[in-house]
Amino acid sequence: MEKRFLLVEAGVLPEVFLKVLKAKELLASGGARNISAAAKAVGISRSAFYKYKDCIFDAENSREVLTVSATLLDETGALQNLLAGISAAGASIVTINQATPENGAAQVAVSIRTGGMQCSLEEMLTRLRAQRAVVEIHQAKH
């Protein structure tokens, strides 16, 4: 049977679903050391956690993720400065992929979550373009 996904407002769901999400967040953040501790902390049984853990996802956590592609000069601190600029804008970094430098430059793709940004994406890209080691930067097309 093909999986079918629905987007449902959290307020209409049974409380157990929200508790499973909270338990998953505790595990991911290190707030609980294991499934037993996470389940106990949110007030559900381990069996309820196991029953729903692979079926419940937070749509808010998967939204607003985009990829920024950059060409950076092959010099010490270039990637660190790029990442610091992204963080300073309030974006959270999800993944980083960097190719081996060739001809004095390296291609970098950084997936970011934009939900917490204090500026627009264009403002952040403009600030990043001003960095000395950034040759080119843009939002990647998906």
In short:
The chain has helices spanning 15-29, 35-42, 46-52, 59-62, 78-88, 121-129, and strands at residues 65-73, 92-98, 105-113, 134-139. With 142 residues, it is an alpha+beta fold. Helix 1 crosses helix 2 (35-42).
Detailed description of the structure:
The protein is α+β, with helices and mostly antiparallel strands and 142 residues long. Helices cover 38% and strands 22% of the residues. The chain contains 6 helices and 4 strands, in the order H-H-H-H-E-H-E-E-H-E. It has helices at 15-29, 35-42, 46-52, 59-62, 78-88, 121-129, and strands at 65-73, 92-98, 105-113, 134-139. It has a 4-stranded antiparallel sheet, with helices on one face. The chain is elongated, with a radius of gyration of 20 Å.
List keywords for this structure.
142 residues, alpha+beta, four-stranded antiparallel beta sheet, elongated
